[in-house]
Write a structure and sequence with these properties.
single chain, alpha/beta, six-stranded mixed beta sheet, four-stranded mixed beta sheet, 20 helices, 10 strands, 55% helix
C-alpha cells in the first residue's frame, strides 16, 4: 500500500492553514469595517447637507435645487457601500467556517454541527449507536460540513450503509474522489458561506413533492386559448382605430373576461402563486450552490473538477438548460407573477392576461423541469457529502488511506481480511490514544478479548468497527496501515432494554444477534463486534450458547471480535480458529492503573473487588 497518499496536502498543516486563513479574514474584516465607517460618514454628511440646503432654501434666498448635489452623492455612495456590507457579511460567515475547522482540530464539536438522525431512528441499526456515529459525542459532528438537508442525509447514509462484495470498485472510486478533493478548501469554504447566507437547509422532500405534483391545468390547451384572446384583442383594437367601431373590441374583451373566469375556476392564479412561495425561498439557495459547484475557482486543479464530474451529472442532464439556469428562470417567473399586486399595472395586466399567462408558465416549468428537481437535490447532496469527507481527510493529514481489497487468496476462494497496524480510536486525541495491531484473516478470524473492567476492551472493539466504517466511506484512518475487504459491520456494544417494548436487555441482545446471524448468510462477509456476549444469563448457558453462535458465524465466513469476563469462553479458542488477547491492570498506591495495551493470551486476574473497594463499597 502506498502510504504517501496519506501525507499532508500541499497547503501545509491544517491547523496552520486555518489559522493563516483566519488571520487573513480578520484583517479583511477590519479593512471592510473601516470602509463601512467611511461610507457611513459620507452618507450621514450627505444627508445632513441635504437637510441644510433645504433649510437654507426656506430661510435664505437659496434655490432648493442645490440639495440635489448632496442627494446625488448620497445615492452614488449607496451601491459601493452595499457592496462593502455584503462582502463584510460574507467574510464573517467564512470566519465562522474557519473557526469551526479549528474547533474540530482541537477535538471539539462546533456549536452548530448537525447531530445526525434521531436516536429513535437508529435503534434497530446493527452498529450506529454502538460505534458513536451520531449525537453530541459522535464522529458525524466532526465530519459534516454540508449545508443542505440532502447533503447531511447523504453523509449519514454513507456512514450507515455496509458495502457488499460487488461495491468494491465504488468504494475505491470514492476513496479516489476524497483524495482528489482534499485540497479543494476554496470550494468547501464558498459552499459553507453560501449555506449560512441563505440558511440553505433546503426541505428537499417538500420541494421535490411540489415539483413532481401533477399539473393542475392542461397548459397547452390554455396557452392556445390565451393566444386566441390576444389575437382577438389586437384585431378589435385595429378595427376600432381604423373604423371607430368598437363593438369587436368589446366582444373580444368580453370573451377574454370569460376565459379568465374559466381559468380562475379551473385552477386560478392565486393557488399557483401560493404554491410557488416555498420553492421560491429554497430554489435560489439551491441555484447558487449549484452554480458554485459548476464553476471552478482560481487555483482548483483538474483533479478536483474531475472528482465532481460524475456527481454533478444530473445537474446538466436536461438538454442545454442546466439546473442553475432553470431555477433562475423560475425565480424570474415568480417575481413577474408578484407584479400583479401592483395596482398601477393592473389595467395593462388584465389587457394582456398577465396573471393566467405567467401561472401557465409556472405550470409549464414544472412539467418540463419538475421530474429533474429530485435528481438535482441528490446531486448536490452527493457533492456536499464528498466535500465533507474531503474536509475530514484534509484535517487529518497523518491518517492513511486503507488498502481496499477483494479479500485474501485461499483454496476455497477469497476470504475476508482486516489487518491493521497501530490502529487508534478516531475520537480519541492522537497524542494519548493507545495503538493496537489487529489481524483478522484466514489463520485467525476471531479475537477473544478478555480483561478486567475499564481496561480498554470495548474501546478496542469500537476502534476496529469505526475504522472499518470510515474506510468504507473513502476516508483515511488513524493507523500505520489498514488492509480490509468489503464487510458488513454488526455490533452489540450498546444494547438497551425497553420498558415500552417489553424487552429485557438479554432479549434485546438476542434480537441483535439474530439480525447479525441473518446478515452473515448473504451479502458481504460479516464483521461482528460482540461485547460481553450473552452476559444476561448464567455462566453455563452463556459458555455453551456463545461457543455455538461463534461457530455458526465463523462457518458463514464472518470475522470479528468478542469481549468477555467469562474465561470459559477463552478456552474454546482452539476449536474456533481464534486467538486470545487480553488487557491487564495493576494495583498501585491504593488505586488501579491501566496501560490499555493489548497482550497475547488470557487475562489472569479480575479487578471487580478492587473497583468496589476504590468506590467505597467494601
Amino acid at each position: 500500500m502506498d502510504n504517501t497518499l496519506g501525507s499532508a496536502p500541499p497547503l501545509g498543516s491544517p491547523d496552520l492553514h486555518y489559522r493563516r486563513r483566519l488571520a487573513e479574514l480578520q484583517q479583511e474584516a477590519a479593512d471592510l469595517q473601516r470602509r463601512d465607517g467611511r461610507f457611513s460618514g459620507v452618507r450621514l454628511a450627505c444627508f445632513l447637507a441635504v437637510v441644510a440646503c433645504l433649510s437654507a432654501a426656506f430661510w435664505l434666498p437659496l434655490r432648493p435645487a442645490w440639495a440635489l448635489l448632496p442627494a446625488a452623492a448620497f445615492v452614488a455612495a449607496v451601491v459601493p457601500h452595499d457592496r462593502v456590507l455584503r462582502r463584510l457579511a460574507d467574510v464573517r460567515r467564512r470566519q465562522v467556517y474557519v473557526e469551526a475547522g479549528i474547533a474540530r482540530l482541537a477535538g471539539r464539536r462546533p456549536p452548530d454541527a448537525p447531530l445526525g438522525p434521531p436516536p429513535a431512528d437508529l435503534a434497530a441499526h446493527p452498529y450506529a449507536c454502538d460505534l458513536d456515529l451520531f449525537g453530541a459525542d459522535g464522529i458525524y459532528g466532526l465530519l459534516c460540513t454540508a449545508q443542505t438537508a440532502s447533503g447531511q442525509r447523504r453523509l449519514a447514509s454513507m456512514l450507515l450503509q455496509s458495502p457488499d462484495v460487488a461495491s468494491l470498485p465504488l468504494l475505491q472510486a470514492r476513496q479516489s474522489q476524497v483524495r482528489a478533493l482534499r485540497g479543494a478548501w476554496r470550494l468547501r469554504e464558498d459552499l459553507a458561506a453560501l449555506g449560512q447566507q441563505l440558511h440553505a437547509v433546503v426541505h428537499d422532500d417538500a420541494l421535490a413533492a411540489w415539483a413532481e405534483a401533477p399539473a393542475a391545468v392542461a397548459a397547452p390547451d390554455w396557452f392556445r386559448q390565451l393566444r386566441l384572446c390576444h389575437a382577438s384583442m389586437l384585431v378589435g383594437v385595429g378595427i376600432g382605430l381604423m373604423t371607430h367601431v368598437w363593438l369587436p373590441l368589446l366582444a373580444a374583451a368580453t370573451w377574454q373576461a370569460w376565459v379568465g373566469r374559466r381559468f380562475a375556476r379551473a385552477q386560478g392564479v392565486q393557488p399557483i402563486g401560493e404554491g410557488l412561495e416555498a420553492p421560491r425561498r429554497e430554489l435560489p439557495a439551491l441555484a447558487q450552490i449549484v452554480a458554485r459547484l459548476q464553476r471552478p475557482a482560481a487555483g482548483e486543479g483538474e483533479g478536483e473538477a474531475d472528482a465532481l464530474t460524475a456527481p454533478l451529472g444530473p445537474l446538466r442532464s436536461h438538454g442545454a438548460v442546466g439546473a442553475s439556469a432553470a431555477i433562475d428562470r423560475l425565480e424570474r417567473l415568480g417575481q413577474a407573477l408578484d407584479w400583479r399586486k401592483n395596482q398601477l399595472l393592473a389595467p395593462l395586466a388584465w389587457l394582456v392576461m398577465w396573471e393566467p399567462h405567467l401561472a401557465l408558465q409556472v405550470e409549464n416549468w414544472r412539467l418540463r423541469f419538475g421530474p429533474q428537481v429530485r435528481g438535482w437535490l441528490q446531486a448536490v447532496g452527493e457533492c456536499e457529502a464528498l466535500l465533507s469527507l474531503a474536509g475530514y481527510a484534509f484535517e487529518h493529514p497523518e491518517d492513511v488511506f486503507p488498502d481496499l481489497v477483494a479479500g485474501e487468496v485461499a483454496a476455497g476462494g477469497p476470504t475476508p481480511v482486516l489487518a491493521g497496524e497501530q490502529m487508534r480510536h478516531p475520537l480519541l486525541p492522537r497524542a494519548t490514544a493507545v495503538a493496537h495491531d489487529v489481524h483478522l484473516q484466514a489463520e485467525a478470524r476471531l479475537l477473544i478479548v478478555s480483561g478486567s473492567n475499564k481496561s480498554g476492551k470495548s474501546t478496542l472493539v469500537r476502534t476496529v468497527g469505526l475504522q472499518a466504517v470510515l474506510a468504507f466511506c473513502g476516508l483515511p484512518v488513524p493507523a500505520r496501515s489498514l488492509r480490509l475487504s468489503p464487510l458488513q459491520v454488526g455490533a452489540t456494544l450498546r444494547i438497551q432494554d425497553s420498558l415500552q417494548g417489553g424487552k429485557s436487555r438479554f432479549f434485546a441482545e438476542l434480537e441483535r444477534l439474530r439480525q447479525l446471524k441473518e446478515a452473515s448468510t448473504h451479502g458481504a462477509p460479516l464483521l461482528f463486534l460482540l461485547d460481553e456476549i450473552l452476559h444476561g444469563t448464567n455462566s453455563a448457558d452463556r459458555a455453551v450458547g456463545a461457543e455455538a453462535l461463534l461457530h455458526s458465524l465463523l462457518a458463514s465466513g464472518a470475522i470479528g471480535l468478542v469481549t468477555t469476563h467469562d474465561l470459559s469462553l477463552s478456552r474454546c479458542a482452539e476449536g474456533l480458529r481464534a486467538r486470545n488477547v487480553h488487557f491487564a491492570d495493576d494495583w498501585v498506591d491504593q488505586a488501579l492503573r491501566f496501560d490499555y495495551k493489548m497482550r497475547p493470551g488470557v487475562v489472569q486476574k479480575s479487578n471487580a473487588l478492587a473497583l468496589m473497594q476504590q468506590a467505597g463499597l467494601l
